[in-house]
């Protein structure tokens, strides 16, 4: 009698103990925190959230990334969302990029949405893209190679007109044709 109750109670409890897989799922959603005393050489890859307070010499790819004030990343950063409060030397590719006042970026940023606080330092090129993560490796490099291979003559033709335009002033280039036309 008592045993039956325990067995019946233990069965629902065992069913209730199916919660650890939920806890495991919760653990995968918890951020990975890399503390300030961590110095890592190599790449970091995660589908979840990473909070980086240390130093990483390598690429970082994550679902969501927070780079703390004392953190340093030397490499490419790719994520859905990136909040940068520290230093990044390398390119940043993300759908949403936030540069805090303490941020220092030396590299290019490809983004769908960008916000920059007053005081942030950014040295590089900034380009909007509707899908910056898909543009990362496959679209940029092969497209450049394909365009160069398929249309080398047009690429040369494209490079020739800007060169004379850069060498001569626009007003200076307009004056000689006018002088030659009026001088017969």
From TrEMBL:
Domain of life: Bacteria
Region annotation (Disordered) ranges: 1-31, 129-184
Pfam families: Bactofilin
Entries under InterPro entries matching the protein: BacA/B
Residues in coiled coil: none
Feature: compositional bias, Basic and acidic residues: 143-159
Family annotation (PANTHER family): HYPOTHETICAL CYTOSOLIC PROTEIN, POLYMER-FORMING CYTOSKELETAL PROTEIN
Similarity remark: Belongs to the bactofilin family.
The protein's name: Cytoskeletal protein CcmA (Bactofilin family)
Origin species: Maricaulis maris (strain MCS10)
């Amino acid at each position: 009698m008592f045993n039956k109750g325990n067995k019946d109670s233990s069965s629902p409890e065992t069913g209730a103990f199916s919660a650890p897989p939920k806890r495991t799922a919760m653990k995968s959603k918890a951020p990975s925190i890399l503390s300030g005393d961590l110095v890592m050489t190599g790449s970091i890859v995660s589908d979840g959230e990473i909070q980086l307070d240390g130093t990483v010499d390598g690429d970082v790819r994550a679902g969501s990334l927070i780079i703390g004030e004392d953190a340093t990343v030397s490499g490419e950063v790719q994520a859905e969302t990136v909040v940068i409060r520290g230093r990044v030397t390398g390119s940043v590719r993300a759908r949403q990029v936030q540069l805090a006042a303490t941020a220092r970026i030396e590299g290019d940023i490809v983004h769908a949405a960008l916000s920059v606080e007053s005081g942030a330092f950014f040295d590089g090129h900034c380009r909007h893209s509707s899908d910056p993560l898909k543009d990362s490796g496959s679209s940029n490099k092969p497209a450049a190679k394909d365009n160069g291979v398929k249309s080398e003559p047009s690429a040369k033709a494209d490079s020739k007109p800007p060169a004379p335009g850069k060498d001569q002033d626009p007003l200076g280039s307009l004056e000689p044709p006018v002088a030659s036309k009026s001088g017969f």
